[in-house]
Design a protein that fits this description.
Layout: H1 10-34, H2 39-43, E1 55-59, H3 66-79, H4 82-87, E2 93-97, H5 102-106, E3 118-120, E4 136-138, E5 145-147, E6 151-153, E7 157-165, E8 176-183, H6 184-196, H7 203-208, E9 218-224, H8 230-243, H9 253-260
Parallel strand pairs: 1-2, 3-6
Antiparallel strand pairs: 4-5, 7-8, 7-9
The structure holds zinc ion (2 copies).
InterPro entries: GIY-YIG_endonuc_sf
Protein name: GIY-YIG domain-containing protein
Length: about 260
Amino acid sequence: MGSAIGSKMAPPYANLFMAQLEENFLVIDDQIHNSQIPRDTLLDYKEKTENIRVPIVVTYNPQLNIIRKIARDLQPMLHADTRLKQIFLELPLLFYRQPPNLRKMIVRSALPTTTKAGTFPCNRCETCKYILCKDQVPIPNTQKVYTILDYYSCASCNVVYMFTCTTTSCSTGGIYIGETGQKLRTRMNHHRHKINNKSCDTPVGQHFCSQNHSLQDMQILILKGYFKTERERKIYEFKCMELFNTLRQGLNLEIKQNCLGIP
Ligand SMILES: [Zn+2]
Ligand SMILES: [Zn+2]
């Protein structure tokens, strides 16, 4: 007897089922109460007796019931040999493996992982072409890598991001770490504007306007997002600056000077 979930008859059936289940529990409860075994004894850890029987595992088939009888019949034959007698001292233990069924063949036991980590283009803004789709960034002067754990796009906001310079001759590595509460593409528009206008009042503008450099050498990715507060984001930004050493040889030099009070 069955009834589809959501059908008219499902609730009455569910009630019947629960009532039956409750009744079964009551029966078990009664058994415990009526028995003369004290509660403590029931809760005690039971030491398992060691099993030396050799297991035989076969895929289940109703016709295989005969195996048990065959094993029993052939046991004397095994005992005729001294070595085999040691191994098969007792009857082998028969186990059945579940045979393939429709459910096993059709239903996947795990859901495919759909979320990729890294920064991805939204495919409808000017920032898309500068996005670096990687989930790992090498940390300069170390053997380590920084791993990005979540999915981000140009439209992600509340993030700590990183600029890198693809120019091979670039001595600094051209890494800049920044943070923004705005969408990445909005923040990026500001940086792009600075570079396009050859404005040198920001470290990013200065770097990508320098010799052998252009806007095309810039790549951007998000290191982390989903911060609870602006303060948490700013602290993380600073941590990343230290990790990627951008305060000494990257593009965050200006911040260092500001922090130290150098005009
Ligand atoms: Zn985009
Ligand atoms: Zn550079």
